[in-house]
Amino acid sequence: MSERLPIIRQLDQLAEIARGTGETYLRYSMGPDADAHQTSCDYESGLELPGLSAVPLTPPRWWRRPVADWLARQVCKYAQLGDADADRCAWIFTGRQVARGPDHEPLVADPRPLAILSESLVDQARRRYHERFEVGRDSRG
Fold first, then answer.
1. 55, 85, 100, 132: which is deepest, by most CB within 10 A?
2. pTM, rounded to two decimals
3. Domain count, the chain
4. 109 found inside a domain
């Protein structure tokens, strides 16, 4: 399945999908084929979760900055998962949110893969994230 998915190479392309497909999610894993018949696990408790843990790509209503800024931030939040394992990829999908995980992330059932994100897109996201955000800043100032 994943070898037939389109590869997204530009943030602008990802923005078009995120604006027009309903709720869209990102996942760093071994890919859609590996995730097709499983759910995520809460490793601290050992409990199986009722869906795949995911990163939301659809900007919330309160977001007033460009969609590409939101996407850059979201792609970068868990990019270390892809960096840590060369067999993992970033892929996007739609599905049915069924719950929230232990880190308040969406848990999504019935995933419908849309595309794979290229490494060059992840690099673009990193650059934009570091150029347009105060990375690491928190409420302590």
1. 55
2. 0.88
3. 1
4. yes
Angle subtended at Cα 44 by Cα 56 and Cα 137, rounded to the nearest 5 degrees: 50
Q: Look at residue 135 in the predicted model and tell me its pLDDT.
A: 85
54 bridge partner residues: none
End-to-end CA gap in the chain: 46
Provide the pLDDT for residue 56. 94
In a domain, 138, yes or no: no
Give the DSSP per-residue string, 36-72: TT---EETTTTEEPSSEE-EE-SPPTT--S-HHHHHH
Could you identify the residue written with the tokens 């499983």?
38
**32-38, long-range: CB within 8 Å, 24+ apart, which pairs?**
32/1, 32/2, 32/5, 32/91, 32/93, 32/111, 32/113, 33/1, 33/2, 35/111, 36/1, 36/111
Residues of the chain with pLDDT under 50: 1
Q: Element (H or E) spanning 80, and its range? A: helix 79-84
Tell me if 91 sits within 8 A of 113, measured CB to CB: yes
Asked if residues 24 and 93 have their Cβ atoms less than 8 Å apart, the reply is: yes
Residue at 140 is within a domain: no
Residue-range definition of the domain harbouring residue 107: 2-132
d(CA 80, CA 110): 25
Please report whether residue 137 resides in a domain. no
